[in-house]
Amino acid sequence: MTCQNRNFIAHVRENADGALEAQDLFQHLKGVATFAKGFADQFGAGDWAELMGNLHDLGKFAPGWQKELCKETGYDLDAFIETEENKGNHSTLGAVFAQSRELPEWCKRVLAYAIAGHHAGLPDWEPGGEGDCLQNRLFGEDASAGIDPKKLDLLEKINQVPQVKSFLTSLSLPRSEPLTLRRTLEKPATDAVHLWIRMLFSCVVDADFLDTEKFMSPDKFAMRGCYPEISALKEKLDLYMEQKSASAKPGIISDLRGKVLVVCQEKALLPPGFFTLSVPTGAGKTLASMVFALDHALAHGKRRVIVGIPYTSIIEQTAKVYKFGTDRDDEIASGALLFGEHNVVEHHSNIDPTKQTQHSRLATENWDAPIIVTTNVQLFESLAASRPSACRKLHSIANSVVILDEAQLLPTPYLLSILANLRHLVEYFGVTVLFCTATQPALIGKIGGGTAAFPGIETATEIYDQERAELYSSFERVTFYVPSDEERYEEWEPLAEDLKKFSRVLCVVNTRQSARDLYGLMPKGTFHLSALMCAEDRSDTITTVKELLSDASQNVRLISTQLIEAGVDIDFPVVYRAFAGLDSLVQSAGRCNREGGMPIPGRVVVFNPPANSPRGLLAKGEEAARMILKGRSSFKLSDELFREHFREFYGRVNEFDKPGMQKMMLDRERVFLYQSPISTSNQARPR
After folding, report:
1. b or e along 337-353 (b: 16 or more beta carbons within 10 Å of the residue's beta carbon)?
2. Residue 179 near residue 43, CB atoms below 8 Å
3. What is the per-residue pLDDT across 509-539, written as a single tens digit (0 to 9) for each?
């Protein structure tokens, strides 16, 4: 039997009756191309992804590959018995085909990257990096000699098969111009092309996984998707918010939460772009931001909402609120429900697989659920990743609403590349970004000073832009005490004695060692919280403390690092906070008299601890706060106070691109695009 008169195989499965069934290779290529085109249509590059999908497994037509597949699976053992060819790398041949077309050099490279890397990952083009490079795969060790003759001979061999030749001849080359490239041609040194290539790569990788799964594991494939429309989720949220508002205790706080919700609904109708929601702790940001996101998604045809959170210690809490409308386990057990577990997918390193449904586990692979709750690390590392598993979900970010909760905690050493990627997502991929926090960082305009300075976001729309002074005064539930430089605890023992005077007190320190030292001096029954504990223990401790705080007769003392500050819904009458950045001081204050229900304002005592802050960003944040608060024994919150602090802090930072990622992107992109004249004449067809 020869390759001239037989079917070509992509995959082989064993059915329930033990019979072997093969997937036709042409059908697989067309299936992947269809999936990939649908994904990339979201950002105007469907024709690019379609061609990549049609070519990604071109090497499987090779006799050696077909023989090996038949041998490994036991299917049609007599097939290709006469060939002596090795199996080889099936993904490279499609890249060779792209390189042999009449196209500008950069077009060939774009096609080759995603096709050749759909299993092994995106490689470097030239030698010198880690691992293999694409240039060597295509050209051998001497790139100047042209494409590897052996690979060209193999391409010519399979092209002699009539059905393969007919298939290749029918393929159209991309006609659409990349949106990212339009800006590049006018203003060279943009850094968006790498993200566009990763997005295309993501489309091909996910399409390949899905079409393969559809054939190999149809029951598993059938579990994917089946989500309600955004309009149905909005109806669920609207009903929940109506019920929550009706049962809320009347007062200034509930009135202002209502105003925040109304403004979120109004501003959701504005055009997509960058938004900020800057309201004090306790104003209901978690739900208000989701109200904005769903209304905005419905108004502008966005596909999903992705919530990025800095700490795994609070991600479970946020996910519970979206799933059930509460993070209290007793209320969840009684049947509380908001969007439900099916529609909210958690994706982070601490997730317990045994507590996930299979449906949720599948959704973490490609983020096809309507609401994704993940970590900033997972989100931003994926935008610069090269591995197929990490990049597979990227195309799902296109045409979505991204909520960045606790935005002040975006990692400063990576801020340059993070903001660059966010700008590109907004400009080229239809994304709306919402920065959500009580202590909004100064990300608009110039960031930093000296040689480290770089342009931030050009503009962002503040959602709650009215009555700002009234907003802060209405949420004024605590009084701050700021020490002079001379007031300092020389040892931990005097601080422990002061804390023992309170039956309910939270003390936040700057390091894990400080938390351990202070905790060791506290009476039995005191709680400890730090990153030295595993995620489950931290979660259990927070749950226990919250339950005890709900009983007025219980004494509750907690010693914690700063992980308690961001988003943890916990409420103490007294909070002690070691001197730190102003955002940290204010976030700690958000754990004091959180609901404003105490007869007198909560008390936040800032203190100088025995141990200095670690060198680096923590120390710079503390220095900035000391500069801003110098000569004050207390302070009140305001937008200008936060802007002043972050300008001072960023001005002290020496590096916003610690790994040099942006420089590498810019340098390599110039070589990628401009090593040969760029032509937009890409109407040629395969010959």
Report:
1. ebbebbbbbbbbeebee
2. yes
3. 999 999 999 999 999 999 999 988 887 888 8
